[in-house]
Design goal:
The chain has ten helices and seven strands. The chain is an alpha/beta fold.
Length: 254
Amino acid sequence: MTLEGCVTKLQNTWIWGVLMIPWGGLTVLLDAVVILLLAPFLGGKRAFFTIGPLWARQMFWVGGVQLEVHGWENLPEDIRSEKQPVIFMSNHQSNLDPPVLISALPVPAVYISKKELKWVPLVGWAAGLGGTLFIDRGNREAAVRSIYQAAAEIRGGKTVVIFPEGTRTRTGKLGPFKKGGFAMALDAGVPIVPLATVGGFHVMPPGSFRMHPGRYTILIGNPVDPRTFPDRDSLLKEVRRNIEALVETAQGLA
């Protein structure tokens, strides 16, 4: 058996999967420390998007996860060159989806997260330096204010990633979409780029912290202009239709 075959066989054992859990925890803390140390020299955003993808890639390499990205080259040049901020919207299959997309998307794209993460030592601080938008989901009025503040930051040039389902799927199927992200998109007036993120349901199933070898396929669709829709409901339906079609296509590629 070749060395590559031996490594693949080892990665498929349960003990390797279990050992990946403390390894992931340890390396994410080290990753956060390095970001904090580099931030004074590189700036917070640059430090985060230099080190963050490296953490994700080493996890995929150690865990036997292959990453494929399709469709980036079809996006308009203004988006690919970061001149045009956008809102990436993706289905949500796994806890691994955020680091996968940080690694897969060639432009810095920040996340919208609950405000509690902001105060988590090291990891939350690093996320804040990377530009994460924190929202108070437990307070409706505060959440609405946060959405409008986020829209203003997007208009100012910040590209974000949103999982409109709000939480990971428990069945592998696309769940209901929440409306907050679409209200934000209408207010920001920037394109929505639909994504399909397929593979996470197998690589890290719901309720599990164990990583399984497998393939992640990211399929990037055509931008949707919110300004051409009369309200958030019609915009939601169109983006959902796009994501459903992309997921089906990505499953065929996986």
